Amino acid sequence: MSNRKFYITTAIPYVNAAPHIGHALEFVQTDAIARYRKARGDGVGLVTGSDENSLKNVHAAEAKKITPAQLCEQNAEVFKKMGDRIGLSYTSFRRTSIQKDHWPGVHRLWELCAKAGDVYKKKYRGLYCVGCESFYEESELPDGVCPEHKTKPETVEEENYFFRLSKYQDRLEKLVESGELKILPATKKNEVLGFIKGGLQDFSISRSVTRAKGWGVPVPGDDKQIMYVWFDALGTYLTGIGYGTDEAQFNKYWPADVHVIGKGILRFHAVYWPAILLSAGLALPKTVFVHGYITVEGQKMSKSLGNIVDPFMLIDKYGVDPLRYYFLSEVPTFDDGDFSEKLLAEKNNSELGANVGNLVNRTMVFLTNNFAGEIPHGEPTGEDKAFLESQKAQYGKVAQALDELRLKDALDSAMAFSSSVNKFFQDSAPWKSVKEDRAKAAASLYVLANQVKDVAILMSPFLPNTSDSIFAQLGMEKKGWDDLGKLSVKPGHKIGKPQILFARIERKETQQKK
Questions:
Q1: Does residue 306 fall inside a structural domain?
Q2: Of 21, 223, 376, 456, which alpha carbon lies 20 to 30 A from 189's?
Q3: How many structural domains is the chain composed of?
């Protein structure tokens, strides 16, 4: 175990409705990065949670004729369950409405910004999108509607507290331009720079208790005002590791190494959030990782179109790892991607089953049938050693891509590694040599068993259940990244029982109900 820490977060989603596959994509991307860092020996903190103190949650509760507290309790549990089902290895699930865990930290954050002279009160009139929980200038509204939700914002006039964002324009521009605050991909960095250079305006960070309908975190010292939901929600990245309640843990993990977010909330994370932290005298996050959106068979997800895809249904139907594999291999890491249930089934069969599943099964079955389920004593030949040496380059490719957060490229390289091992099996033809030259077959299977172990390590960030199953079939404890390339599956070691990793999905199962 290294002494390094690694702190990563998902966005903190609104819980006005159930999670969809866009949320599942973000959870899987975040988890893959976290599991890689854990495999490298880092002490990993992963914070996720539920954004509960919003007006849109109040409206959703009213529509259901329940209280906001009841709505948040119900839906936060669904998001937490989805995180558990999809394999999100979080260390803290933080609910923003829980006073003892969250409120002390965001109160402190507010007070530090006020002490810096960056909080003031004024009357304001503006155009507000409840879906975004954000004010817009008329120039930002094509055809008078919100660019994100395609709805007409409401006109709001009231007295609120404001944050002096304009004060930090030059500093933010330098931080983003220099890469000290890294924004991935470069297109999103340029988008942020364009917004900053266009001139930053101070923004409202509170709402009247009346308009918030009494729901949310009270402003310190003013019982007539509620904190703006984004000031509150962004503070979750601090309170999730103990800010305001456990300073030792906070100091261990902060600053965040990576914030994983969707492109629709870029401005809040790459402009508002670093400015708030600068005001409070806190260190800035290192990287903002921005992913795109998912369409469904070429169409944007929409309730009216009836194409909202339920991640629970997909997990129940196909299993967790085939869904994770689809997200990480088919959806571009930093761009929009499309989801097709038919393609998920095809990828399970033609990629996962035909590559990783085939390799593991044929190796385990051959060892069971020909060497009594025991790793044979075999001295690798010159060809075997040359193959092992050639595989070392692939370890580096996977690691470099993961270090650079290029998840799709990393998984592609890991799959290429597995394909090479499959080719080695075919070229070695142990089904022939076991009859003609048993020592040669023993050497091949010794190499293959260790390469299967390395496949399990390389797949652990992406397909954790598959990785665990491979280690179980090898009959050994899980290994970390530092074991790659080592012949640690020793001669005489007894393997476990062979298991099919990826059951074939028949075409008829992919037909959606009309």
A1: no
A2: 21
A3: 2
CA distance linking residue 193 with residue 184, whole number of Å:
13
The number of beta carbons lying within 10 Å of the beta carbon of residue 11 is 25
In the block, tokens 């159930």 appear at 18
Give SS3 for 297.
coil
Please state whether 213 falls in left (phi above 0), alpha (psi between -120 and 50) or beta.
left
CA distances from 8 to 29, 135, 414 (A): 11, 28, 23
What gap in Å lies between CA 334 and CA 150, rounded to an integer? 23
- The alpha carbon torsion through 380, 383, 389, 392 (nearest 10 deg) reads -90
Strands (E), 56-191: 92-95, 119-129, 134-136, 154-163, 182-184
136: left (phi over 0), alpha (psi -120 to 50) or beta: beta
Q: What is the pLDDT along the chain (514 residues), one digit of tens a residue?
A: 467 999 999 999 989 888 999 999 999 999 999 999 999 999 999 999 999 998 888 889 999 999 999 999 999 999 999 999 999 999 999 999 988 989 999 999 999 999 999 999 998 877 776 666 666 666 677 777 776 657 777 777 788 999 999 999 999 999 999 999 999 999 999 999 999 999 999 999 999 999 888 999 999 999 999 999 899 999 999 999 999 999 999 999 999 999 999 999 999 999 999 999 999 999 999 999 999 999 987 777 765 566 788 999 999 999 999 999 999 999 999 999 999 999 999 999 999 999 999 999 999 999 999 999 999 998 999 999 999 999 999 999 999 999 999 999 999 999 999 999 999 999 999 999 999 999 999 999 999 999 999 999 999 999 999 999 999 999 999 999 999 999 999 999 999 999 999 999 986 544 443 3
Domain coverage including residue 362:
341-483
* CA angle centred on 91, ends 103 and 74, rounded to 5°: 60
285 shares its domain with 421? no
Same domain, 199 and 92: yes
- Determine the distance from the C-alpha atom of residue 154 to the mean position of all C-alpha atoms in its chain, rounded to a whole number: 33
Q: Is residue 38 domain-shared with residue 187, that is, in the same domain?
A: yes
495 falls within a domain: no
Please report, in angstroms and rounded to a whole number, the separation of the first and last CA atoms in the chain: 52
Distance between CA atoms of 417 and 395, rounded to whole angstroms? 8
For residues 31 and 150, state if they share a domain.
yes
The answer on 157 and 22 residing in a single domain is yes
* Angstrom distance (rounded) from CA 71 to CA 478: 40
What SS3 class is residue 513? coil
Q: Which residues are known catalytic residues?
A: 20, 23, 129, 132, 146, 149, 300, 303
- Is 349 found in the same domain as 232? no
> CA dist 254 to 30, 44, 90, Å?
17, 12, 16
